[in-house]
Each structure stands twice: as structure tokens, then as C-alpha cells.
User: Which sequence fits this backbone?
């Protein structure tokens, strides 16, 4: 159950993740994502993005500690958080709630979560690394935007990327957030695509 809650928290980040993708629970119901994301917050151009699931044939499998993960990482546990990989077809819709403009994307990944055996941030419930390859979508909430901004990283609220993506994250009492972002590949600003 705690791992499922973590997946919800991280999807609210990303995302990709942490986005980021819609969680398995939301995807199986076919419901729009409960958490809302705002493109261009605190500006006159702000609009809400809703996420829906068109197809979800994804499966999440727990990995044994020491299993290689792309990007040179190894699977690690911090019970009750266990490393996992999610793969299979995932097609999502992203809608500008103000205009109704919708983009449909295959964001299948795959993606991996691994955890630091001991949280690296004082007071955190967990810290770890999210890795994705292929094509994914990441939605960054206010906690991630603040943490990334403090690190000098400015990503749009909605990002479509393809390639090797590595994000470090923190799970705190107040929610989960991304602390670093690295992409060896291509990216598209989803907010810009939905606003035009």
C-alpha cells in the first residue's frame, strides 16, 4: 500500500513521472488524474492540464537488489520501498481544461524506480532515482518546480521526452518531489503544445 501511495505521489510530481505517467490505479479505472497540474502558474496564461488514459497494458514488476538499471544504476531497496520496473503499452491524453485542446501520446517508457538504502535527505520517508527510456511524459507539481528551480533547473509543468531520463526524488511528509533532472535525448514542452 505504501508503494502504491508513493507511485501516486511521484506521478503527481512527474512524475514521471515523477511523474510520471498516470498511476496504475488511475489507469485501470480510466479516470482522469485526480491531481491537477497548472501550466504557466501565477501568470495570465495559466491553464489546468487533465490527464486521461486511452490504453494501459502496463505491468509493474519488483526487482531484486543488485539488478542493473539503465544509466549505470543498480536496484536497491529501502523497505517498505522496493525497486521496480514498469513496462508495456501506455497511451495517455493531455487536455487543456480551458480550451479543450487535447494531445494523445504513447508514453510507454519503460521506467524504473530504485531507492537509497537510507534516505539522503534528513527527515525524508525515502529518496531514490527514477530512470526512464523510450518516450515518457512528466508532470511537475509545485514541490518539484520549487526544488528544481532552487537547483537552477527550469522545466515546464508538462514535458514529453524521449531518451535516457534520470531524476532523483525525495518522498517527504508534505509529498514527493524531484530534486534533479538529466535527459540524454529530446524534449517537447507540453504546455506550449497545449496552449497553441
Assistant:
Amino acid at each position: 500500500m505504501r508503494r502504491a501511495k508513493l507511485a501516486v505521489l511521484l506521478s503527481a510530481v512527474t512524475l514521471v513521472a515523477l511523474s510520471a505517467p498516470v498511476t496504475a490505479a488511475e489507469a485501470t479505472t480510466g479516470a482522469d488524474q485526480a491531481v491537477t497540474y497548472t501550466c504557466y502558474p501565477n501568470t495570465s496564461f495559466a491553464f489546468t492540464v487533465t490527464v486521461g488514459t486511452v490504453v494501459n497494458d502496463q505491468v509493474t514488476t519488483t526487482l531484486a537488489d543488485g539488478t542493473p538499471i539503465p544509466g549505470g544504476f543498480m536496484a536497491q531497496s529501502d523497505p517498505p520501498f522496493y525497486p521496480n520496473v514498469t513496462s508495456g503499452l501506455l497511451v495517455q491524453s493531455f487536455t487543456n481544461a480551458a480550451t479543450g485542446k487535447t494531445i494523445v501520446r504513447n508514453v510507454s517508457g519503460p521506467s524504473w524506480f530504485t531507492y537509497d538504502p537510507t534516505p539522503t535527505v534528513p527527515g525524508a520517508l525515502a529518496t531514490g532515482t527514477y530512470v526512464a527510456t523510450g518516450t515518457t511524459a512528466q508532470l511537475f507539481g509545485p514541490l518539484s518546480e520549487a526544488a528544481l528551480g532552487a537547483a537552477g533547473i527550469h522545466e515546464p509543468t508538462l514535458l514529453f521526452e524521449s531518451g535516457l531520463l534520470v531524476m532523483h526524488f525525495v518522498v517527504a511528509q508534505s509529498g514527493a518531489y524531484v530534486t534533479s533532472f538529466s535527459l540524454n535525448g529530446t524534449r517537447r514542452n507540453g504546455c506550449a503544445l497545449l496552449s497553441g
